[in-house]
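Run ALOG domain-containing protein through structure prediction, thanks.
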Amino acid sequence: MDSVPEPDSSNSENMTSITTINTNISALASSPSTPSRYENQKRRDWNTFGQYLKNHRPPLALSRCSGAHVLEFLRYLDQFGKTKVHTQICPFFGHPNPPAPCPCPLRQAWGSLDALIGRLRAAFEEHGGKPEANPFGARAVRLFLREVRDLQAKARGISYEKKKRKRPQQPPPFPVPTGASSNTTLSSSLHCSSINR
Ligand SMILES: [Zn+2]
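Sure, done. The structure for ALOG domain-containing protein is below.
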């Protein structure tokens, strides 16, 4: 009778690697020189993508990964999205703050995907990948992200336009609403006048 399980199935291999990854992350987090949140997030994203490649059927090696596979990965992530993206037939299409629930799907927000791709693109090259072979920098991925941005901007009534960096002048800060403070002033002046009497 053999009590030691052989790690011959792909499932147990995955389990083992997940445990190792978690251990590494907690070890890093408790070390005095804690890496930045960006670095931590980048490492987690890279591990997630690694898991995705491992679980891919048929199995997919990183070296054979193309922009098309990255798009597949992004679509796979959509099922975990939390951003409501209204379809064109939804009455709330184009409403930033719909007054009622609707059955439209939840997706990954464009901003999350854009940041994710940026981190994975950097991680790929940090792990020895060549910039010209970087699947996260593929034209198809750029076009896809632009499409998602435009679609979500329309569906959610939100503009994602980048702030123009060429202009050194910043718009003046929005004045703080004075409703509450004027009320305070009014009541305190009333208070003062009642004391005076
Ligand atoms: Zn909707």
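Residues 4-31, 178-197 have pLDDT under 50 and may be disordered.
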